Amino acid sequence: MSNKVAVYRKEHFNAAHRLYNPLWDMAKNDAVFGKCNNPNYHGHNYDLVVKLVGEPDPQTGYVMDLKILSDIIKEKVTDKFDHKNLNKDCEEFKTLNPTAENIAIVIYNLLRPAIDVSLYLQVRLYETERNFVEYPVE
Amino acid sequence: MSNKVAVYRKEHFNAAHRLYNPLWDMAKNDAVFGKCNNPNYHGHNYDLVVKLVGEPDPQTGYVMDLKILSDIIKEKVTDKFDHKNLNKDCEEFKTLNPTAENIAIVIYNLLRPAIDVSLYLQVRLYETERNFVEYPVE
Amino acid sequence: MSNKVAVYRKEHFNAAHRLYNPLWDMAKNDAVFGKCNNPNYHGHNYDLVVKLVGEPDPQTGYVMDLKILSDIIKEKVTDKFDHKNLNKDCEEFKTLNPTAENIAIVIYNLLRPAIDVSLYLQVRLYETERNFVEYPVE
Amino acid sequence: MSNKVAVYRKEHFNAAHRLYNPLWDMAKNDAVFGKCNNPNYHGHNYDLVVKLVGEPDPQTGYVMDLKILSDIIKEKVTDKFDHKNLNKDCEEFKTLNPTAENIAIVIYNLLRPAIDVSLYLQVRLYETERNFVEYPVE
Amino acid sequence: MSNKVAVYRKEHFNAAHRLYNPLWDMAKNDAVFGKCNNPNYHGHNYDLVVKLVGEPDPQTGYVMDLKILSDIIKEKVTDKFDHKNLNKDCEEFKTLNPTAENIAIVIYNLLRPAIDVSLYLQVRLYETERNFVEYPVE
Amino acid sequence: MSNKVAVYRKEHFNAAHRLYNPLWDMAKNDAVFGKCNNPNYHGHNYDLVVKLVGEPDPQTGYVMDLKILSDIIKEKVTDKFDHKNLNKDCEEFKTLNPTAENIAIVIYNLLRPAIDVSLYLQVRLYETERNFVEYPVE
After folding, report:
1. Which of E11, E36, E92, E134 is catalytic?
2. Is ipTM > 0.90 here?
């Protein structure tokens, strides 16, 4: 058994979005995405939980200082997405449907370069209390 | 002491909105509403708690059947607002700023005619877990 | 402004119950109580919040020691109702329909004699996270 | 690293149950199951979280539409168990003790045939906020 | 009915404290405060909910901008108490027992001068999820 | 697929602590641990979730009776740490910095000998709702 520990930090942001596939007509988009395809957008309070796995530093007892992790999440993710329209304001979703799955993948890719390569990274994203996703999955 | 009981039912809806005053220019709107004034909208998962106060019916033990209250809330409120852009899709906010305060007042006015006059009605609206409002207040 | 403070203690219990009026036939009970009228019972995790209002004792800073309040709630309420069938096991509901409203009134009456008369008492009972009641209401 | 994503949907149901082994006498059942062996049953608000793992569809961005997953859970699980006495009303527990562990296994087996075979399935069941189980475990 | 609305803002802080009355000997303090009288202190994550009641400003729709309220709470309360030993680091509790009741009264008195006099103010303080207090009470 | 099930039990304790490395001077401790290095301590409400994985006993349907697990956690962990100053009152942290990571490892080592070797054990520790850790990680 290794002495690895997982550490988690929870943040949140509020955003508007609309789900649709621009290659489909409105009827097909409505059939697939239902009320999530409202052309005027709807929105969510997203809760984001970031998980890192690594060995605690023997001098600090930290895998990573969660205050620093919080600052990284703020700089790379929540400052970009909070109080935004994901489809219109965020480069990442100009051509990518902002489902919870895709938002989680985008967030992972935004965070990965900012986190030490020795640490495993996983993100969990709550779109609502009842709908949530996790990426990556081993 | 009367034998009145308060009963509560919690529902939710997800919506986009933007806070601004059309009589002000963009600079003043930004100064007052900050990132809530994003012209492309942002959004929330709203939690709505409806409170009724009355005497339990001696034959049922209910102040009101909360299943029926849930259906009324669905018909009068959440079907109207869920997955909507409050500013653009909802008549009520064409000229009224959709702050939590104003949304709560609007919801109260939508529900009041549908609830027996003998019952006191109050609504609590959570815009986020940390920001919420209540109307009316005695 | 008085220097009164409200103090709250949350406890819980798990119980089975069935809603019905023995004076009505099965058809009417089904019409009124729906699936809550299952003759084989269903159940809930009840959360109970007890509120007391009074002036803090100047020597302790307590309105009431909440550990003592917890013990009283345990003795008078949760030991009676936890892991019980309210209709069959509990004297209080032999002829009283165990709606959340009635359970709250019963709990109030069980607690009132055990709490100092100088303290205002109110109980809030959660039948589920989305359905809850409060008694008394001024 | 695969591009698999885990998606989760939370539902709930309220049910009565009793824990006991019909092959044992009452004394042994009491010794093992304590107050959970109340012959008149007790009950819980069960929270059910269903997890699926798969690759998002490139056209929708969904691993699976969670509205459809919600409908499947409703049809296969919660319509069967909600407001029921698990021991008396549910075929699955006529001879199987309805511990949280066994309920989770039963729910898995009810859902598995209804979910695309390409998707990994896991269920988490909360009997209370403090007692919960997960099945299967790799 | 007035058009008053209650608005709420939730904040938190983490602090150590010890409950005891310096006028009593250790035996009496132990008898009254039990393990809360640990001379080496213990601690809590305190959740603070601040409630204001007033009429929404017709131009903004706000009773008060909750971002401004959040800044006031931070300046007046959480910057003072967060990651502190209430008994040793905080002037307010040099001679006042830091029970939840007394902490709530102190927080009220810190906030009151910073909030417009036209607004009613009430604070709710959670010492744990199960023990909480409110001040003032009408 | 094995028929293993994971079972979870949630407990909590309240404690004071201070983060620092005695080999460093105050300036370096302040730079690394910030306000967590308050020499007078601060505190938290810790939530502890203990996970066991094993096969349900065919006679009981239990992986382990969670009441018994609760008693073991109480005896081995929460009676030791609740309402304590981790640095001063607890042998385990005399020379070990009580970060969430280290507390989780200590709790694992306290529980492991008390749990049947056939059962996999993992602990999750919440220092706050937003900062939490898990040990071990495979």
Report:
1. E36
2. yes
